[in-house]
Amino acid sequence: MNLPKKVIDFIDARIGIRDILQQNLTEYLLPRNVNVWYTLGAVLLALFGIQFITGILLLIYYVPNTDQAFASVQRIMNEVPFGWLIRYVHAVGANIIVLALLLHMLSVLFMGSYKQPRELTWVAGFIILLMSLGMCLTGYLLPWSQLSFWATTVATESSNEIPLVGDAVVRFLRGGAMVGQPTLGRFFALHVMGFPFIFGLIVALHLFCVRRVGISRPPFGPEYEPREPPSTFRHEHHEGGIPFFPNYVVKDVAVICFFLALLFGVVFFAPGLFFPPAAFAPADPFLTPEGIKPEWYFLWAYQVLKIFPSEFLGLAVQGLFVTFLLLLPFIDRGRERRPTRRPLFLTLFLAGLAVFIGLSVWGHYS
Amino acid sequence: MNRIAGRRYLSLALLLWSGWLLAGAAVAGTAPETVCIQCHGGQTGRLQKPVEQWRASIHSRNGISCHNCHGGDPTDFGMAMSPERGFVGAPEKTAIPDFCGRCHVGVKADYQQSAHGRALGSGGPQCVTCHGNHAVTEASLDLINSEACSRCHEYGRAKVLREALGKTDGMISGLEDDFRKLRRVGIDVKELSDRTFALRNQFHRLFHSVDVEQVRSRSAGFQGDLEKVGAEVDSIRATLQQRKATGGIVVGLLVVMGILAMLIRKIYADEESAGPSSRNG
Question: What's the complex ipTM?
C-alpha cells in the first residue's frame, strides 16, 4: 500500500474525508443549464488566494515606516529576486479582482439570483465587494509614493464635509492633523490584518450560504418556471444535474486560466497600466503632483462628486445608491427572475450600467 | 418583530453607508495652495499674470513656488509679503544674477566669467533675458535661437556654439527619455538619473561660458561618461525584453491550459446531453 493512500485512509477513518468530498464534489449536482458566469466565484477565490500569498511575500521586505516604505518597495521591485513580479501581481491582481467582482455582481443581478431565499448570500457578497474596495484604498497608501500620499491626503481631507463629525473623522483616519506615520500605521494594520481577517469570515459566510441554500438555477430556457419562495429552509437540489466535480470544475479551471492570462498579460506587457507616474516618485508633502485621478473603479464616484454642487451631497447620493444595492433583495420581492419578463428591472440594469461606464469615461477625461 | 428587523437593517445600512462615505471621500477634493497663489491667482491683469506664467514653468513642475525665490510667509495672508518674514520683491536687473544664483550657484559663476556676465550693467543680458522670469522654461538648446540671440547681437557665433553643444545635449535628452520610460515600469533609475543629472548640470554650465573652444574640448569627456550610463540603460532594457519573452510563454501556456479545459468540458457536456446511460458506458 502506498503512502498517500495510507495517509488518506488514516484521515478518512477519523473524520470521514471521503464522504465529505463525495458529498461536496462528485455528488454535488449543479443545474444542467449552469452557465459560464457561475465560474466567477471560483475565479475570485483563486485571485484572493494569489493576493493572500503575494501579500505575505511582500510583507517580508516591506517596511511600514514613512522613512523607509518607499525605499523598501523600490528594493522589492529592483533587488529582491522576482520581487517585481510579486508586487505587480499583487497590485494588478487587485484591479483584476475588482473587475471580476463587478462582473460577478452584474451577473447575479441580471439573473435575479439575489432574490429570496438568497438575501444573505447577496448581502455577504456585497460586503465582500465593499471590503475589497476598502483593501484597495488602504493598500494605496502603503508604497508611500506621491500618488499614495496625495490620494490619501485628499481622501481624508474630504471627510471634513461630513456634518458635525467631519473634523473628528479626518483626525481619526490620519491619526493626527496631517497624513504621516500614524496614518501609515493605521492603514497598514487595516490592510494586512483588520480587513483580511473580517474579509475571510465574510467570504466563509458567503460560501456557506451558497452551499447551504444550493446553487440558483439560471432563469433561462423553456423549462424554467419561477417557484414560490419556501417559507422554511429548503436546500435547492438539482435532480439529474451535472456533477460539480469533475464536470463543472474543468470550466472553473478554464476561466481561471483565462483570468490569470489577463493578469499576467498586464504584468508582463503593460505593467504601467494601473500606475500613473506619481506612483513611482517618493511622497513629498511639499509638492502636489498634477492631475491625480482615482483608480478606474472609483472614477464614477469621482465624477459624481464633481457634478454635485456640494461634496457632501455627492457623497450622500453615492451612499444612498450603495445602500439601495445592498438592500435590493429586501426591496425587490417579486418571484420572477427571467430578465425578459422584468422590463423595468432590465431597463434600470442597462441604464445603470451605461451611467456607470459613462461617468467613468467622463471622470477619466475630465 | 418587523420593527426590530427594520431597525437592524437600518443600522447595517448606516454602518456600510458611513464606510462608503469614507471610501467615496477618497476621490474628492484638491490640495491647498499657498496664500500667494490663492491671492494673486484671483486677481486680474499684471498682478495675476505671474501666477499664470509660473504654472507653466519648470519651477512649478519642480515644486519651486513664489516664496522659494521671493521669501515671505506662504501660509499667512497678512504676513505673506512682510520683510520681517524675509519677503523680497522683484530684483533690479543688475541684481538678477545674484537673485537666481542663490540656487544656481555654478551657473552664476560661469555666467559671471563669460562675455555675457562681463557686460552686465552695460546692456549685457542677465538670466531673465534668455530664460524669462515667472515663465522660466527648462534649460535646453532651444533657448539658443536666431530670434532670441539676434535681439542683442548677430546669431552666427551663437549658432556655432549650438552646433557644438548639440550631440551631447541630444544624448542627455535621450537618456532622460529612457529614464522616464524605465521609471514607468518600476525600474529604479535614481542612481543613473542622478549621475546623468550631475553631468547635465556640468554640461549646462558650458552653455553659460559662451566659449565655443571650451565646449568642443570638454564635450568628448561628457559624451564618454554618458555612453557608460547608456550601456547600463541598454542592459536594463535587455532584462525587460527577457521578462517579456518569459511573460509571453506564461500567458501562452495559461491560454492553452484554458482551451484544453474548455475542450474537456465539451466532452463532459456531450456526455451529459447523451444522458446517464452513455456516461455509464
Answer: 0.93
